[in-house]
Amino acid sequence: xxxxxxxxxxxxxxxxxxxxxxxxxxxxxxxxxxxxxxxxxxxxxxxxxxxxxxxxxxxxxxxxxxxxxxxxxxxxxxxxxxxxxxxxxxxxxxxxxxxxxxxxxxxxxxxxxxxxxxxxxxxxxxxxxxxxxxxxxxxxxxxxxxxxxxxxxxxxxxxxxxxxxxxxxxxxxxxxxxxxxxxxxxxxxxxxxxxxxxxxxxxxxxxxxxxxxxxxxxxxxxxxxxxxxxxxxxxxxxxxxxxxxxxxxxxxxxxxxx
Length: 258
Ligand SMILES: [Zn+2]
What we know:
258 residues, alpha+beta, eight-stranded mixed sheet, globular
């Protein structure tokens, strides 16, 4: 593992992390490393709990800490040891992805994100399924201009299929990617996308049983470009604020565990 000092743009340098390099390949800031491997749904501290008044069941940790919850949902625990072991290019680190996505940071260097970059095939699939003008949901944080050439060269999906840049009117945190626990057997289902409070498809009972592994945002008012210089900014960010009901759903005052 070697370090270099990332993008040359002075603005990005202020907040960018030193890039981690493994066998000549830059490892994105949000990628997981083998030392961080964690079967998050197999965590022995996970519990299914029942609200003593409402009877509503929710997932929790036996030794839960405030930082285990964000956006009104429980998050899978992973060690934080980037640079140690081998990179897992296809796997995202739960906390780093969430932190970078929440602030619109660059997924490669961790600095300030400047543009939404999407593989052309992914964009074509979206147009087929959702149609032009529909909101676009993604778990891929933006990228800074300095990291675009690196991503285009190094990411297999981007290298093979080219890519587009999205000019976006507004974007907002809207959901999580994660696993929903069965309220009776406590078995976790397959990975799925789950709406947060205030987003289309929100289901309080399902969110209470969710163990999250990634943050999703929704982009709206999208124009597509092949030249990143045609994109002036990430767009206006609409904030996500927990409402009284989502707070209550996340942190019941009375609990009985088993
Ligand atoms: Zn960057």
